[in-house]
């Protein structure tokens, strides 16, 4: 991985695990028309896990962070009820992902592709990192 593209140089010894285009229908928005029905939200997620904790020795799923964890956390959060802001949604997903003991950093972006007909999407992205272990 090109370390110059990392969001934090302390992540150079990490594996990046990602999901692109995870789509859920979410009750989200502050406008009346947004409260009437669920909207399509597309999630892109990057997880950073230290290679020492995420390098399989026996080619077994229990040795790595499973993609299902990300999908399950996103689904859990979006099914809890209406959310007004994408910022709130991004922060909730980020917090849930960072709670995993092997994840040291994460990036979450959400986008609404169906809001305006003159652009592809509107969205939010957030990044967070646990404090370095001493």
Q: Short description, anyone?
A:
With 134 residues, the protein is of the alpha+beta class. It is built from 3 helices and 4 strands.
Descriptive keywords:
single chain, 134 residues, alpha+beta, GTP Cyclohydrolase I, domain 2, 4-stranded antiparallel beta sheet, 3 helices, 4 strands
Descriptive report:
This protein is an alpha+beta fold and 134 residues long. The protein has a single domain, classed as GTP cyclohydrolase I, C-terminal domain/NADPH-dependent 7-cyano-7-deazaguanine reductase, N-terminal domain (GTP Cyclohydrolase I, domain 2, 2-Layer Sandwich). The protein is 22% helix and 31% strand. The protein has a four-stranded antiparallel β-sheet, covered by helices on one side. The radius of gyration is 16 Å and the shape is elongated.
**Overall strand count:** 4
* General form: elongated
Number of domains: 1
Quickly name the level 1 CATH class. Answer: Alpha Beta
End-to-end Cα distance: 25 Å
Q: Beta-strand level of the residues, as a percent range?
A: 25-35%
Helix content: 10-25%
Radius of gyration: 16 Å
Strand numbers in spatial order across the main sheet: 1-2-3-4
């Amino acid at each position: 991985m090109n370390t110059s593209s990392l969001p934090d140089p302390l992540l150079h010894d990490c594996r990046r695990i990602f999901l692109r285009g995870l789509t859920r229908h979410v009750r989200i928005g502050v406008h009346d028309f947004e409260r009437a029905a669920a909207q399509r939200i597309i999630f892109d997620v990057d997880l950073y896990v230290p290679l020492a904790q995420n390098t399989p020795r026996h080619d077994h799923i229990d040795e790595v962070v499973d993609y299902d964890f990300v999908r399950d956390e996103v689904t859990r959060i979006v099914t809890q009820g209406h959310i007004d802001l994408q910022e709130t949604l991004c922060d909730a997903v980020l917090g849930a992902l960072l709670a995993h003991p092997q994840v040291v950093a994460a990036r979450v972006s959400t986008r609404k592709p169906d809001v305006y007909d003159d652009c592809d999407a509107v969205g939010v992205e957030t990044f967070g990192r646990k404090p370095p272990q001493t």
